[in-house]
Amino acid sequence: MRKLPRRDKLKIYGDLLYFIYSEAKAEKLVLTRVQLKTNVPFDRLKTYIADLKELDLVLDEPSLRLTDKGKQYLKEYQAVLDFMKRMGLTY
Amino acid sequence: MDNFALILIEAVSAILCFVLLRFMIKPYQATGEGRYLGLPVGFAFLGVSYIFMGLALYYESLIFFDDLKWFQLFTQAYALAFLAATYYFSKKPPERTRLWWDITYAGLFFAAVISYLVVFEPPMFGLPSYKIVDEYFRLFNIVLLAYISIHTLRSHVSQPDPKTIWIPLSYLLLGFSQYSFLIWSLDSSFSAYMGAHLLRLSGLLIFLFVVYQAFHSKRGRSPKEGISDEEAST
User: Fold this and answer.
1) Hey, are the CB atoms on B227 and A71 less than 8 Å from each other?
2) What are the residue ranges spanned by the domains of chain A?
3) In this predicted model, what pLDDT tens digit does every residue of B109-165 receive, in sequence order?
4) A9-87 architecture in CATH?
5) Which residues of chain A are within 8 Å of residue B225 when distances are taken between CB atoms?
6) For B64-93, how does the pLDDT look when each residue is reduced to its tens digit (9 = 90+)?
7) How far apart are CA B90 and CA B97, in angstroms?
């Protein structure tokens, strides 16, 4: 079995935000689906989502979705990742 | 080529480096990982080295002309050493190499300060001729740039993508520029001297193109990699 590379908190936040963004059209996004797709244990996922809510990056009412600040953050984060890939830097 | 044109090329190169510096710091700002700090530091040192060279050309008749050229030599070599260290540590797992990159960067800063003190502060040591040292430094720079080019080329080959080919190309151009300077230093060929400046400018312009593509171009990024400005602002 292939060993997955270890992710730091920032990468997990990035993956979470990207998944929530990509599921924006879903009527209701439940945590179990987020957990399955982002590969984060449920107890830690709840902590991460609470952190993201505290940072005003996501909203969970009526369903989990990104705030404007969250969209802006995700846009900048992905631009930096794209730049690092172009520069030949591994992250 | 008269001095004015050369000074202009040095000034443009320095400006390009400082513009690039603004973007090179972003990986460090976004990830908070010290291993990416060598990228902005490297470009800052590179910019400073072009300023020293420009000043050396401008004050050619003054007594500290030689000092400025020595400064340029050291600063450029340290710039490339910082860049090479960044690429070396970028492929290592951060949790195991954190201490090593801290030691490497601190060591490079320490060595930079010590070498400036040894060369420019009393007691003055008898230094070899600038021309000989210049040739060795060019060789050192070529080795570092070859390492960085191979590293970026391997990263491109492992995940082929048309947009990742530009950076190995720009590092190769910087390497060829150093090689041209070496040829010029050996046989005083005017075309090698001019070629070296043009290759360096082309390399830096490619960096600028890559930065533009990554941060300002909407076409440069595929929809999977980012969200549009309209979506981000709604």
Assistant:
1) yes
2) 9-87
3) 999 888 888 777 766 666 778 888 889 999 999 999 999 999 999 999 998 888 899
4) Orthogonal Bundle (1.10)
5) 78, 81-82
6) 677 788 888 999 999 999 999 999 998 887
7) 10
